[in-house]
Amino acid sequence: MKSGKCLQCQELVSITKKDRVGDIIYCSHCDAELEIIKVSPLQFDWPLEEDFDDDDGYAYIGDYEDEEWGDYEDD
Questions:
Q1: 57: alpha, beta or left? (left if phi > 0; alpha if psi -120 to 50)
Q2: Containing domain of residue 44, as a range?
Q3: Is the residue at 74 inside a domain?
Q4: In b/e form, how buried is each residue of 30-61, taking b as 16+ CB within 10 angstroms?
Q5: pLDDT for the residue numbered 54
Q6: Looking at the chain, which terminus has fewer C-beta neighbours within 10 angstroms, N or C?
């Protein structure tokens, strides 16, 4: 069993041999939701939250409509 530090409380969080990259696990100390991004060495990240647009069924991450992108030119 491998262990790594929780991103929120810094307590050790263990994974089993069945856990894989991309799996979501929960810290047993603070209930933080963690995504396994690397198994060796063990690394966690915060999972991406996906927002869904009910009108067309496409998933959007974040709200980009309010961002100012400016004018970009292709090189």
A1: left
A2: 2-60
A3: no
A4: eebebbbeeeeebebeeeeeeeeeeeeeeeee
A5: 53
A6: C
